[in-house]
Design brief:
Elements: E1 7-9, H1 14-24, E2 28-31, H2 37-42, E3 50-53, E4 63-66, E5 69-73, H3 79-83, H4 87-90, H5 92-97, H6 104-109, H7 112-118, H8 124-131, E6 135-140, E7 143-147, H9 149-152, E8 153-155, E9 158-159, E10 166-172, E11 179-186, E12 196-204, E13 210-218, E14 225-226, H10 228-232, H11 241-254, H12 265-287
Parallel strand pairs: 1-3, 2-3
Antiparallel strand pairs: 4-5, 5-10, 6-7, 6-10, 8-9, 11-12, 12-13, 13-14
């Protein structure tokens, strides 16, 4: 199939792109990497009247370290996560998850902010942004605003972005000391969307007990499943197999995954249990500085 007819614009500046969004509202779509939008257009699951191609806006194609934060602009490609010299050391969760995002040819074009704005609940980046408490910076006619992941992701492929707004940047806060992370997922084939994926973040106190933890899942709910009640079971505890089992069981118990042609709800709960224990164990090793600490 071919896309329905649309009007095409290629703005030369962010201001021009925002003007076009304000003019055309919910009849327009932003084209960045196009790895999700392109198939939707071809299958006519999306039929915008206007496409606004922002690929000429090279000033927002950046990944940089600024005031302790990792700042990623709207046109930064997913492949740059794997090639960055900065990310593996300070934001290893991003680096570890990157190879699971589709295939290299898709990551060469797909953008980080584009994946967040698309908000597919089976995608890796929304869960990573949630686990790392990212800030999403949005531009619109009324200026700039920021949103936390729990405010931004509203439902299945639905965000708090207004039709006239652009997700311009995502910011990841500085890593905390004595923190280990891990990303694990199970998919039918490498490059497929995960049946279940988990981001684990574990911060230790000086005495070795757990100060804080996060467990965030993909493929389980209409938005990233942030199992806060399960992670909170670890706070103040000795991180070990027993406490990890309790957190994993709680995360599975509170989850409400659906069944589809790929996996049943029961199997997804099983994966939550197994992947949670493994990811927490991996994160603990890294928080303690054991092994090489590499993803």
């Amino acid at each position: 199939m071919k896309p329905a007819p649309f009007e095409y614009f290629a703005p030369e500046s962010v201001e021009e792109a925002l003007d076009l969004l304000e003019q055309h509202g919910d009849t327009a779509k932003i084209l960045a990497g196009g790895q999700s939008l392109g198939p939707l257009l071809n299958m006519r699951l999306a039929s915008p009247e206007v496409l606004i191609d922002i690929n000429r806006l090279e000033d927002i194609a950046y990944i940089r370290h600024d005031d302790g934060y990792l700042k990623i602009g709207a046109l930064a490609r997913q492949r740059t996560i794997e090639r960055s010299l900065l990310i593996p050391k300070s934001w290893p969760l991003l680096y570890e998850a990157a190879p699971y995002i589709g295939h290299p040819t898709l990551r060469n074009r797909g953008t980080i902010c584009g994946s967040l704005a698309h908000a597919d609940p089976a995608a890796e980046l929304p869960a990573i942004a949630t686990a790392l408490d990212a800030e999403l910076h949005i531009l619109g006619p009324e200026g700039e605003r920021s949103a936390r992941p729990e405010e931004f992701f509203e439902s299945y492929m639905t965000t708090s972005l207004k039709p006239e707004e652009l997700l311009a940047e995502v910011r990841f806060p500085p890593p905390r000391p004595r923190t280990g992370v891990a990303w694990l997922e199970v998919a039918r084939r490498h490059g497929d969307f995960a049946l279940v994926g988990v981001a684990a973040v574990l911060t230790l106190r000086e005495d070795g007990t757990c100060e804080a933890a996060r467990l965030v899942y993909t493929g389980v709910a209409p938005v990233p499943y942030d199992a806060r009640e399960a992670a909170e079971l670890l706070a103040g505890e000795q991180p070990d197999g027993e406490s990890f089992d309790a957190a994993a069981e709680k995360a599975a118990e509170l989850s409400e995954p659906g069944s589809d042609v790929h996996a049943s709800a029961a199997y997804r709960r099983h994966l939550i249990r197994v992947l949670s224990r493994r990811a927490l164990g991996k994160a603990l090793e890294r928080a303690r500085g054991e092994g090489d600490g590499s993803p």
